[in-house]
Write a structure and sequence with these properties.
This protein is mostly beta strands. Helix content is 0%, strand content 42%. It is built from no helices and seven strands. The strands form two sheets. A five-stranded antiparallel beta sheet has the order 6-5-4-1-7, with no helix packed on it. Strands 2-3 form a two-stranded antiparallel sheet.
């Protein structure tokens, strides 16, 4: 018998990662206005939008999607096809 609680998060309500997240790479938006969503999927809620050229850190991935952190500290999911890798140091 387990006494410890089991916590289950819906995919669109995941808590932000810890302060020491690993940055996989840096990317920038190539879309005029890129939707940043609460989860990896077109059905996930759009939480905000970023203009072309906005740079962010990639800290997670799902097929066709990137989990990002903006320079302002916001988190969300973007479609990878609307980003390009930025040259330079990561993290």
């Amino acid at each position: 018998i387990r006494n410890d609680p089991i916590v289950v998060y819906r995919q669109d309500t995941l808590p932000p990662p810890s302060q020491t997240e690993l940055v996989l790479r840096k990317v920038e938006s190539t879309a005029h206005l890129l939707n940043v969503r609460s989860g990896p999927g077109l059905g996930a809620r759009v939480t905000y939008q970023v203009p072309t050229g906005t740079q962010f850190d990639v800290i997670g991935m799902a097929p066709g999607w990137l989990y990002i952190k903006t320079m302002a500290g916001q988190y969300g999911w973007v479609m990878s096809q609307y980003t390009r890798e930025v040259d330079g140091p990561v993290g």
